[in-house]
Amino acid sequence: SRPEPVPEAPAPSIPAPRPAPLPDRPGLVEPSEAPFLLPVWAASTWPSLPALRQAARALEASLAALRVAEARISRRLGDGLRRIRDGHIDPIRLGELSYRTFALNWLGISPTHASDLAGLSASLEKWPSLSAAFDAGHVSRSQAQVVRHVLEPETEAGWVALASRTPVRQL
Predict the structure, then answer these.
(1) What is the mean pLDDT of the chain?
(2) What is the pLDDT of residue 25?
(3) CA 102 – CA 111 distance, rounded (Å)
(4) Which residues of 58-97 are buried (b: 16+ CB within 10 A; e: fewer)?
(5) Strands 28-29, 40-41: pairing kind
(6) How many CA atoms does the CB half-sphere of 36 hold within 13 Å?
(7) Are 141 and 132 spatial neighbours (Cβ–Cβ below 8 Å)?
(8) Is the CB of residue 160 less than 8 Å from the CB of residue 148?
(9) Mind spelling out the 3-state secondary structure of the chain?
(10) Which residue, of 34, 66, 75, 171, has the greatest Cβ tally within 10 A?
């Protein structure tokens, strides 16, 4: 005979999250329709144009630093995965059968992403202009992935310059 199903316990009542209090700055108001959004400025206290420009420059500097940090992380991951892929490090010693399973189980990235990072690492070693632009954050990982397949010694500088100013879809 089958055991009787156990009745489910009622779901606990979870209160709706409350938005964080706004800082003590005059002119900040909370959007009523979407309290999860950042506060907006009241029209009467809108910052001056020079202040907005300064904030935009600071944001751009932060984004540039993040691009450089992302490039460093991608390069380090790619270098390590390439060492495993190329047999310099035995994945069995790491408790895995291949660099792809290592990437999936230990790094939480897909085997395809691991393969892309390892390939990009090899390309960055081969193409110095691409490597410099990538490390400086001028060329994203996606842009580098696209152009690395078409690089030739005579055209490397041109492709890197094009990649640094062209969105990935257009490349």
Answers:
(1) 79
(2) 45
(3) 9
(4) eeeeeeeeebeeebeebbebbbbbbebbeeebebeeeebe
(5) antiparallel
(6) 2
(7) no
(8) no
(9) CCCCCCCCCCCCCCCCCCCCCCCCCCCEECCCCCCCCCCEECHHHCCCHHHHHHHHHHHHHHHHHHHHHHHHHHHHHHHHHHHHHCCCCCHHHHCCCCHHHHHHHHHCCCHHHHHHHHHHHHHHHHCHHHHHHHHCCCCCHHHHHHHCCCCCCCCHHHHHHHHHHCCCCCC
(10) 75
Residue matched to tokens 């890197």: 160
Report phi then psi at 29, rounded to 5: -125, 155
The residue assigned the tokens 């005579």 is: 154
User: Full-prediction pTM beyond 0.85?
Assistant: no
Q: What is the token pair recorded at 35? A: 């309290």
| Least confident among 43-47, 66-70, 71-75, 118-122 | 43-47
